[in-house]
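Revision sheet: structure tokens.
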Amino acid sequence: MKFILPFLAAMILLVNVGATAETTNGWSDAEIQGHQLAQKILEQQPTENFTNSGVLQIRFPNGTATSFPVRFETVIGATNWQTIYTVSFVHYDNSNNFGWKGEIITITHASDQPNQYKNTYAFSYGDKLKGHIMTEGPVGSQTRILSDKEIIAPFANSDFWIADLGLEFFHWPEQKVLKKEVRRSCGCTVLESTNPKPTTNGYSRVVSWIDNETLGIVEAYAYDASGKKLKDFYPKDIKKVNGQWQVQTLVMEDVQTGSRTRLEFDMNKK
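Predicted:
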């Protein structure tokens, strides 16, 4: 059985990876297996368009919390495929005006090509009276392509970085299978992805536990540039819906600040 996950889809929908005893570029067997696994993950793509919705719940280090509606889309193209993440903010000001703002991250995936990240801010403004929209104001948007440095930034002020959404650590040149072990009651293969040139505020390495049965990520640790553990990612609330296994909740914790983000999906959405 496989998990059907409508967010960070490639994290869960993986395919079998075979090992080889042949050495490539001086790599050890563990490095060969690691590169094979990372490449298979990057090559995996959905077979049909998909849309789902959910709620992004953020608990900040000071104990305050907020939540926003989130929309996830997978769009299949002729030569590539896109994952689109939209979070919506509603704003009211002191002048009795209402506003809507949306942050949209579009990631374009193509075989043997780096991910392309596009950030769009959409907005609309108008007037309200006793909760009812009376007139609609201007509508607009601003879109730009993000650089490698710009994707090391939070998505909608959450603990998920934009780079996390595109699984950038599987693009890093150093991949290694560390061992086999049980994690969260699952038999797993442990994959270490290492960044040879981490930025000051970026990841230096990510360790992922991949379920041997479902080939989904059971848990992943991210480490900062000094080698200290920074984040803990794990799915939870796995349920069977319409005969398929789905992950209802994704959790990303910043273990250094104590902030925590939950992404909960509508399990009845198709």
